[in-house]
Amino acid sequence: MNCPKCKATIAADAPFCGSCGFQLDYSVDAPRANVAPKPPTANPRPTPPPTFNQSTSQPPPRQPVNQPPPNQSANQFSGQNQSSGQNYNQQNFGGQGTSGGAFRVDADGRGAGRGYTWEILHAGAFALAVVNLQTEQSISAEAGAMVSMSGNVELISQMKGGVFGALKRAVGGESAFVSTFTAHGSPGEVTLAPAAPGDIAGIEMNNQTFFVQASSYLAGDTSLNVETKFGGLKSWIGGEGLFLLQVQGNGLLLLSSFGAIHRKTLKPGESYVVDTGHLVAWEAQMQYQLRKAARSFFRSFLSGEGYVAEFQGPGEILIQTRNLEAFAGLLKPFFPSQSGSGGGGGFNFNLGG
User: Are residues 30 and 175 in the same domain?
Assistant: First the structure.
């Protein structure tokens, strides 16, 4: 077959002439020599995506918010290496489940316990723990931790462990009383928060034993065994107090921190030093000793560091990023102080000027 315009040989079913570009029209017999060839489209429009017909097919399910993709485990941190230490923040976790390590921190800041569900709101400097109790179910908390509760929730405070146990708790820096919240007649809500600004970590204990600083214990499952253990004279000199809390069992443990919570996992034989004022909790089987930050008392005094705890791996430690005692010392010059003697005294304010 020949092109009607340039007489070049072309294929029988060609849409246009390859030599001159003349567009062939097979609907008429006469050649259209006076019609300019139609150039091919430079940028063809993309094919629109297919639409889904509800009667025949369904669109793919939407990925839930804050959920990891199917090929990523929800129990992993956001691409961080556990051996180098991690910053705990509820918003940094990408899904349900618990993080790796001995401290099974719930990744999404919520979970379920024996007759209750719980959630941590406003994670960060001013975290709040919300516990929803089923009917006739209970949860234990440190005295003074309650922020609010439903009208049908009953609060009972008692000296756990008798007089001697209450005395140990008081000497260890805790309240002598333990609060138990129980929902009567219908489900109820209890909200809890620590006294100092900071974060809250919800830990699912699985037949484990942890040592916890007294100021870091917030609440826990009523089945947990919380005992006050003697830490020795060095523990008291180091600023930890004479007693530590030993928490053992299965269930929810809520810990609070001054600042954020930093996790440090030690390998077997690895040594790690932590200022005692920054400790939150650690595995009970870990070996540790208290010593001065520097090898000599004078150098330790000059460095501004006091006593530290030197841990030996393997094991995991929870560390708070701020020191409450150091923060109180920072604010002390700005507090009002009494001056003078006799009845002519008053208050002087040091504003740093």
Answer: no
Same domain assignment for residues 6 and 114: no
Residue 168 lies in a domain: yes
Nearest to 276 by CA among 235, 313, 229, 230: 235
Query: Is position 80 within any domain?
Result: no
Same domain, yes or no: 23 and 105: no
User: CA dist 164 to 92, 149, 169, 227, 245, Å?
Assistant: 42, 30, 9, 12, 15
Full domain range(s) for residue 195: 93-329
Residues 99 and 27 both lie in one domain: no
User: Do residue 176 and residue 283 come from a single domain?
Assistant: yes
Q: Given the structure tokens 């309240």, which residue do they identify?
A: 175
- Please report, in angstroms and rounded to a whole number, the separation of the first and last CA atoms in the chain: 102
264 closest CA partner among 74, 91, 87: 87
| φ/ψ (deg, to 5) at 180 | -125, 130
Mean pLDDT of the chain: 74
Confidence of residue 95 (pLDDT cuts 50, 70, 90): very low
ω into residue 37 within 30 of 0, thus cis? no
pLDDT at residue 38 tops 80: no
What is the reported pTM? Answer: 0.63
Give the containing element (helix H, strand E) for 348. Answer: strand 346-348
In this structure, the answer to whether residues 196 and 324 fall within a common structural domain is yes
Tell me if 74 is assigned to some domain. Answer: no
Higher pLDDT, 71 or 145: 145
Q: What is the pLDDT of residue 88?
A: 40
Q: What is the number of domains present in the chain?
A: 2
Is the model's pLDDT at 159 over the cut of 90?
Answer: no
Report how far residue 316's alpha carbon sits from residue 284's, in angstroms, rounded to the nearest whole number.
10
Q: Report the run of H or E that residue 302 belongs to, with start and end.
A: helix 297-303
Let me know whether 30 and 142 are in one domain.
no
pLDDT of residue 68: 45
- 82 part of a folded domain: no
* CA-based nearest residue to 3, from 20, 13, 35: 20
